[in-house]
Design a protein that fits this description.
With 161 residues, the protein is mainly alpha-helical. Helices cover 52% and strands 9% of the residues. The strands form two sheets. The protein has a two-stranded parallel ribbon with strand order 1-2. Helix 6 links the parallel strand 1 and strand 2. Helix 2 packs antiparallel against helix 3 and helix 5 packs parallel to helix 10. The two termini are 33 Å apart.
Length: 161
Amino acid sequence: MDWNENQDAGYPLQQATEERVKLFPEYEEWIRIYYGRWEEMLGNQIDGTVTILKQLIDNPNYKVVALTNWSAETFPIALERFDFLHWFEGIVVSGTEKMRKPFNEIYELTLNRFNIEASQSLFIDDNARNIEAAKKMGINTIRFNNPTQLKSELRSLKIDV
């Protein structure tokens, strides 16, 4: 996981792969497959979550931006594959910014770039470390488990979905 997060923070995929192969030559085939066949691991969108996103984006009362830990080299593939990624008012991609969640700098960058007050924002993420970091910065949070749970928690916050 640490190795992958390193690339999410902007480290070049080819360089990371070669370094890992040198460390573990007996696993070279598997190491090269990780990014070589990465698109096959990408999976599909979660339709229920995309429906919720559409409802939030269609509501003029909300500014909806994305903050993602993602390699700058692979994110364009996701942009091409998933139409919903084009719906956001903006996206902060960790690999492009050379920083990643759960470090404060990327949350601060996102808040500043889109003129968002931490106390007036809501951060949704499936990673407990990312949620805890956002909470410490005064950002409201929901830890995502599934679309049903997300919808319920949004409604409990009086957010129409």
